[in-house]
Automatic annotation (TrEMBL), chain A:
[2Fe-2S] cluster binds at residues 237, 242, 245, 253. The keyword Cell division does not apply. It comes from Phytoactinopolyspora halotolerans. Residues 4-101 form the FAD-binding FR-type domain. It holds the Pfam family NAD_binding_1. Binds 1 [2Fe-2S] cluster per subunit. PROSITE patterns: FAD_FR (PS51384). The lineage of its organism: Bacteria, Bacillati, Actinomycetota, Actinomycetes, Jiangellales. SUPFAM superfamilies: Ferredoxin reductase-like, C-terminal NADP-linked domain, Riboflavin synthase domain-like. InterPro entries: Cyt_c3_hydrogenase_gsu, Dihydroorotate_DH_Fe-S-bd, FAD-bd_FR_type, FNR_nucleotide-bd, OxRdtase_FAD/NAD-bd, PyrK_electron_transfer, Riboflavin_synthase-like_b-brl. Coiled coil: none annotated. This is Oxidoreductase. GO terms for molecular function: 2 iron, 2 sulfur cluster binding; flavin adenine dinucleotide binding; metal ion binding; oxidoreductase activity.
UniProtKB/TrEMBL annotation, chain B:
PANTHER family: ANAEROBIC SULFITE REDUCTASE SUBUNIT A. Pfam families: Fer4_22 (PF17179). PROSITE patterns: 4FE4S_FER_1, 4FE4S_FER_2. GO terms for molecular function: iron-sulfur cluster binding; metal ion binding. InterPro entries: 4Fe4S_Fe-S-bd (IPR017896), 4Fe4S_Fe_S_CS (IPR017900), Helical_ferredxn (IPR009051). Keywords: Iron, Iron-sulfur, Metal-binding. The keyword GTP-binding does not apply. It comes from Phytoactinopolyspora halotolerans. This is 4Fe-4S ferredoxin. Gene3D superfamilies: Alpha-helical ferredoxin.
């Protein structure tokens, strides 16, 4: 059980990912949250301004540090974007159902991320690489609006050095310096080394991108129950009490944010549900 | 006495209500009950049973609530008012915590100084409290403030023998009889049949206990065992009330009906009438949605978080970066009614509707949940309004 009171965390590190995105490393000041599972999120407070749900992009046990990557899009995330090392934020959680990683043992893994969607799936990649040999081929497909919007660029560059991971990146709009691919992220699937029936997919990005990616995976032959997505809805409490994050029968904070496509495909196509 | 008595049921006259309130207050409860104020029967703390709305009734219909004088002395001769008990166990505004400067986060202590005794809880509202218990009290992350306020509430239920025109608890299986969840249950008889001292028009009360705490309080009341005939008479009166509901909302297939109609054109028909004011969610005894607001003083040194009721009819309710998920009024009404009647089952194991009829009476444009469901059942709105006019068939 977690409380409605935020615990105090100090900003330990602040890594600028892009012009609007930072990764904050947060360390507990007086008691830490219970251990989190990949794909879970916290409610992150900028004191006096407000609270937002942010996925946990990394944990550094045993000192209880958490990494949270966020994009400045509103009053709260703008304040958090500017939170300098030493400043204090509040944390509640962890909340929600995370990624099912056991599903992918002995199978191909494909991770598809759009924009800042790479942050919630990053722990999946970490877990997969930590036990690389229990999986077959590993593919990471990344889409961003422009080259400037690529989050975790340095880590991705490192990842590309590995021979045991297939990495591909595309941008919607190229710059003059961009020598890579352009187009939506689903176009990368054609070259992905996967055996669809033996594939587990982990998808995170804007909802429309996830829907098109999931449909493309389905067409390739990946079963809908093997496609995991993480959904975003307005959340005020994180614990299934405020009613904001409903999607049909689900409370996304409680029954998600990670869901499988077989349970949600028909809901995601209903406008304004 | 020669007449057989009915086990566990006692009878008392109207003066015993004063004793009941006094006993509860002596035991440390804040007694909350109905009283007349501002042209409505509202809930308030009662220092005496004399403040009960004796002789007042209400006239209800879609978009209509009017007090009326009764020709008897009933204390509970009224159907649901604008408020429900959720105002007390799940208040409309609540401070969650505060923080000064670099100090710790301090929980706000909003626990009531005295536990509540709810006097006059209708069976529909009793069911609503049970639903809130499941939603707010029994999830993975229970609302601790709710638990503090709800714990030890003493409930005096009052069964219904005179449903209002907007009532449909009979359809929802939540009334008019009180079945569980009360400490004491009253049945108010107005036809002189109690005859402790009464004449027609003066209420007599059957009273029974539903808990050890109830039995304890009952022992202090001037009540005598009721004879079986009177108990049977009261039972008949309550049963008859089930047949006299002002409205009905047949429950069969309701869950599926709502899901099947996600894309129905009927939502646009409702949206043409609905002003998305959110009144229905405010008066609903089970609507539990909340939002939070963080505030500071002028120096910015003192920060607080408040929680307040929110409504799925509010445009901001579904806001995420990029815009609200539910922009149209049609989608917001669909969300409310579908959640209430269908997806509530998926989320919390029961319906979210208890048939109290408040949303019908307090809708400023008279939208009626029972009628909307009937229209969905019947098919497209065209078929209803312009039947035989070449309207499209059901989709």
């Amino acid at each position: 059980m977690t409380t409605a009171l935020p615990l105090l965390y100090r900003v330990h590190g602040r890594e600028v990912e892009t012009y609007d995105t930072v990764t904050l490393t947060l360390e507990p000041m007086d008691g830490s949250l219970p251990a989190s599972a990949p794909g879970q999120f916290t409610m992150l407070t900028a004191f006096g301004i407000g609270e937002v749900p942010i996925s946990i992009s990394g944990t550094a046990a045993p000192d209880g540090r958490l990494a949270q990557t966020l994009r400045a899009v509103g009053a709260v995330t703008r304040a958090l974007y500017h939170a300098t090392p030493g400043s204090v934020v509040g944390l509640r959680g962890p909340y929600g159902v995370g990624w099912d990683l056991s599903a992918a043992r002995g199978r191909d893994v494909v991770i598809v991320a759009g924009g800042i969607g790479i942050a919630p799936v990053w722990p999946v990649l970490q877990a997969v690489l930590a036990h690389r040999r229990v999986h077959r081929r590993v593919t990471v497909l990344i889409g961003a609006r422009t080259p400037r919007d690529i989050v975790f660029g340095a880590e991705i560059a490192e990842l590309r050095e590995r021979s045991d991971v297939h990495v591909d990146i595309t941008v919607d709009q190229a710059s003059n310096e961009w020598l890579g691919r352009t187009g939506v992220v689903t176009t990368l699937l054609a070259d992905a080394p996967i055996d669809p029936e033996l594939t587990d997919a982990y998808v995170c990005g804007p909802e429309v991108m996830m829907r098109f990616t999931a449909d493309a995976l389905l067409r390739l032959g990946v079963p809908a129950g093997r496609i995991q997505l993480t959904l975003e809805r307005n959340m005020r409490c994180g614990g299934g009490l405020c009613g904001h994050c409903q999607l049909g029968p689900y409370l996304i904070c409680r029954d998600g944010p990670v869901v499988t496509y077989d349970r949600t495909a028909d809901l995601l196509t209903v406008r304004e549900l | 006495m020669s007449t057989p008595t009915a086990a566990g049921v006692s009878v008392m006259d109207v003066s015993a209500l004063c004793v009941l309130v006094d006993v509860l207050r002596d035991r440390g409860y804040a007694v909350i009950g109905p009283t007349v104020r501002d042209g409505a029967i509202v809930l308030d703390e009662l220092d005496s049973a004399e403040r009960l709305p004796f002789g007042w009734g209400v006239t209800l219909d879609a978009g209509t609530y009017r007090l009326r004088r009764r020709d008897d002395g009933a204390a509970f001769g009224h159907a649901a008012g604008p408020q429900s008990w959720k105002s007390y166990v799940h208040p409309a505004r609540e401070r969650l915590w505060s923080r000064d400067g670099d100090g710790p986060v301090v929980a706000a202590d909003e626990t009531p100084r005295r536990p509540y005794a709810f006097l006059g809880v209708r069976p529909c509202d009793l069911r609503a409290l049970g639903i809130l218990d499941r939603v707010l009290g029994q999830g993975r992350h229970p609302d601790q403030g709710y638990a503090r306020r709800r714990d030890g509430v003493f409930i005096v239920a009052v069964e219904c023998i005179e449903p209002g025109r907007t009532c449909f608890c009979g359809s929802m299986g939540s009334g008019p009889a009180a079945e569980e969840g009360y400490d004491l249950a009253l049945t108010e008889l107005l036809d002189g049949s109690g005859s402790v001292s009464s004449s027609p028009g003066t209420p007599t009360y059957l009273i029974r206990s539903g808990s050890p705490a109830g039995t304890d309080v009952l022992a202090e009341l001037p009540a005598t065992p009721a004879d079986a005939e009177l108990v049977a008479h009261a039972r008949d009166a309550v049963d008859a009330a089930a047949e006299r509901m002002g409205r009905s909302l047949p429950a069969d297939g309701l869950r599926e009906l709502m899901v099947e109609n996600r894309e129905s054109p009927h939502w646009d028909d409702v949206a043409a009438r609905c002003v998305t004011c959110g009144n229905c969610t405010m008066v609903c005894p089970t609507c539990f949605c909340t939002t939070t607001e963080d505030v500071t003083d002028l120096t910015g040194e003192h920060a607080e978080r408040w929680r307040r009721w929110d409504s799925c009819f509010d445009l901001d309710f579904s806001y995420i970066h990029g815009g609200s998920v539910r922009m149209s009024g049609a989608s917001r009404y669909r969300q409310w009614i579908t959640h209430k009647l269908s997806t509530w089952h998926d989320q919390f194991g029961s319906t979210g509707c208890v048939g109290c009829g408040r949303c019908i009476a307090w809708c400023p444009v008279g939208i009626d949940i029972t009628e909307e469901v009937a229209m969905l059942r019947a098919g497209s709105p065209d078929e209803r309004t312009t039947a035989g006019d070449g309207a499209e068939g059901p989709r």
